[in-house]
Amino acid sequence: MATIEAPLPTTRERVRPEWLENIGGQLLALVAALVIALLLGSFIILAYGESPAVVYGAILQFSFGSKDGFGYVISIATPLIFSALAVAVCFKGGMFNIGVEGQYLVGMVVAAWAALKLDFLPGPLLMWVTILFGMLGAVAFALVPAVLKVKTGAHEVVTTIMMNGIAISLVAWAINGPLHFTQKLGAFNINLRTDPFNANARIPDLGHRFGVPESAHLSWLFPMALVTAAIVWFVLKRMRLGYEARAVGASAGSAQAGGISIGSVQIRLFILSGALAGLVGMQQLLADKGYLPVQYEAALGFTGIAVAFLGQNSPLGIVLAAILWGVLARGETAVQIDTNVPREFVIILQGILIISVVVTYQLAQRRLLARQLRKAAAVEELSDSAAVEDIEGLAKEDR
Amino acid sequence: MSTPPLVVMRGVTKRFPGVVANDDVSIELRAGEVHALVGENGAGKSTLMRVLYGIYPPDGGSIEVRGREVRIHSPRDAIARGIGMVHQHFVLVDPFTVAENVILGQEGSQLLHPDEANRRVAELADMYGFQIDPSARVEQLSVGEEQRVEILKALYRGVDLLILDEPTAVLTPPETSALFANLRRLRETGKTIVFISHKLDEVLEIADHITVLRRGKVVGATKPAETSKAKLAEMMVGRPVLFRLEKPKTKIGEAVLQLEGLRGGRLRGLDLEVRAGEIVGVAGVEGNGQRDLADAIMGLRPLEGGHIVLDGRELTSISTSEIRNAGIAFIPEDRQDQGLVLDMSLWENGVLGRQDDEDFSRRGGILLIKRIKQLAVRLLQEFDIRARSIETSARTLSGGNQQKLILARELETDPRLLLAAQPTRGLDVGAIEFVWSEILEQKAAGRAVLLISAELDEIYALSDRIVTLYEGRITGAYAPDAPAEEVGRGMLGDVAATKAG
């Protein structure tokens, strides 16, 4: 072996697990993005002659200052966790499911049908069956673009956008047609909704156990969302489907040469994504309203794209990002009540936040990769024995 | 010589965190010479030239151009001082014409004059004997032609010193000859060329002076007449390198792979047989169906006709994963596009293709992470893959280590047939030796090997039987000691070839 006089790396750095490095880096990037967004937002607040401290204080006060404030934040976050997970699952496989919007609308219609027509089912069984039907409806709707993509190569972005239009009309048709209002309630004109569901179909309230008023609609759906996020993490990181999905997403050619069937992975991802999308509407359908109104809360699928992005498509990141989104949404009420800043300020702040996340993550990722490349280069310069020691150390850790 | 050298780099040192890429390197470049810079990957050749081209600021040392000490802060600076560089990866605007690419950024006025530009670029090309149509669009050009455009771009900016970073890595043999003809012409007109390479035959053919780098230091300066391939390789690697490995004697057994009348893509009725304990080398100029042949065997492209049979079993219409399970290991020609998922970790790459094995995942689809990681640790150890950890991404490995990882993964499965396409493309001498000896070991173990390579050297070094591929057909079969001219004729489609003995 050649002797090396040059000051080669003398102390080999301890092998820090990549995930720690990644999470550390990402957390730093997220905090930096948040700080930048709040700073930029301050200029807008100052332009309205208000104090940033007061405005941000009001937003925080409304979200964290009371139990019911936080309850609202959580119930806003709940459907966003599902929709962002639905987006992320496809994204990992290199696909962009813009159709979560349509998929959850169809899920709501099918779930409403189940809740109304199967109301003979006993106790909580009706609720579970209703949720299951919601998921199945969304899956069926998601399969159309998935099959079109695999069989004909039609791009999922185009087809899912088109499917969204169909879904909106489908809801209107369902409420005016097969699921129309049947009960007579005096002079009230409330036929722009379905009949109310049997109480057995509803998701029980959770908030009152913690002193959060029921008007916040903090239900058992939130813990279900957390469990779902954990399951999605497990599927992506610990299961073959997730492994194959990430391989297809990162390098379709290598995945294919490795024997992975790309079409099959794409179909399975869309099924998973659709199932998650089916859960998005359950907050308003089964925790909040108890019927399907024509003025349902829309755009949860689109917001999910922003949340998935903010959470960098990682399940943990998505949960945090959804809560952050909940805080901001709650902030709309706060600035209206407590300050002279218009509520649209919050929407601007959301936009700024996304832009600053894009920028800081890009920078962080580049720096991270550069660091890894440098360290790798250093390892290649090391003598054989040192590299082997490294690996042997690892082997021990693994045992 | 009385005139000062065109460029003198004195004691140049460049550090990256944890690594000294250039350690007190001195080099003189004279007008009108082709100066070869050789060394293994990571020896610091490209870094040194990037310092000269103003991409990296040096941490120490000085640079003189035409006898005057200068500081070069950017590529723009370098070009202003007559120094140009053509990188391995071209930076051209595909939809633009050749002339538009050449004059890009140097248009001279807001109003474009396409005819004038074409005329000037044509004149420039004529002056140096470059064959290229200025009005052709870059996206329609071959790789060799794109490289000519890059060189013209530099010449258009009036450079006297042209740095070419591994220019032949992407070229076919005829394209390389054309490039060398161009370089000789440039030398005649007094231009200086720095030729970065680790292909020693080429260096000996074209260079006037050779500087050898190893681990960031100059370990030798010589001339082609005073050295040999073996001496250069020893300087580069630091130990003697075998260019002809001993081919193990094996008993050649029954047919393992039979290809019959394969048609589809560029394949036009290809027949071939590979037997156990035998290495069959498919020689041919690139673009004659090599990629389609490999893809067809692996089930990665549909066929219009023909049969692929492994150990008597028809593989023609089964999936890639079934083909792999039947016992074919695959070293793809493009390791980044068909071999590794660069953004996944080493352990995730180490199991790619075997994630379905019951060793590595449960029936319910849950991966057995611990076992997969143990596999990766074993692969890294057995194949001496230098990496920081198995958690690091495949992107951070050097080309040689990436290829080793693919070899390790593919050979771990105890295959019946190894399909190796361009297995040493872009690798340096040490890594080539490693890959070659692994392939020979497969033969020694009684496996069948189908080697597809554009490097005739490689075909000769490994094959027991050589066949030539031309326009999707096998045009000849040769014994491993057949003269290169005969094989060359087969590569150009001359079907009247002798049968192997």
Task: Please provide a written account of the structure.
The complex is a heterodimer of chains A (399) and B (501). Chain A is an all-alpha fold and 399 residues long. In chain A, 72% of the residues lie in helices and 0% in strands. Chain A has a domain at 77-311. The longest helix of chain A has 38 residues, at 344-381. Chain A is globular, with a radius of gyration of 25 Å. The model of chain A is unreliable at 1-15 and 382-399 (pLDDT under 50). Chain B folds into three domains: 5-237, Rossmann fold; 242-327 and 415-501, 3-Layer(aba) Sandwich (Rossmann fold), CATH 3.40.50.300; 342-409, no CATH class. In chain B, the strands form four sheets. A six-stranded mixed beta sheet of chain B has the order 6-7-8-3-9-10, with helices on both faces. In chain B, strands 16-17-18-13-19-20 form a six-stranded mixed beta sheet, sandwiched between helices. In chain B, strands 2-1-4-5 form a four-stranded antiparallel beta sheet, with helices on one face. In chain B, α14 runs parallel beside α15. The N and C termini of chain B lie far apart (57 Å). Classes of the chains: A mainly alpha (399), B alpha/beta (501). Chains A and B meet through α8, α9, α14 and α15 of A and β2, α10, α11 and α13 of B.
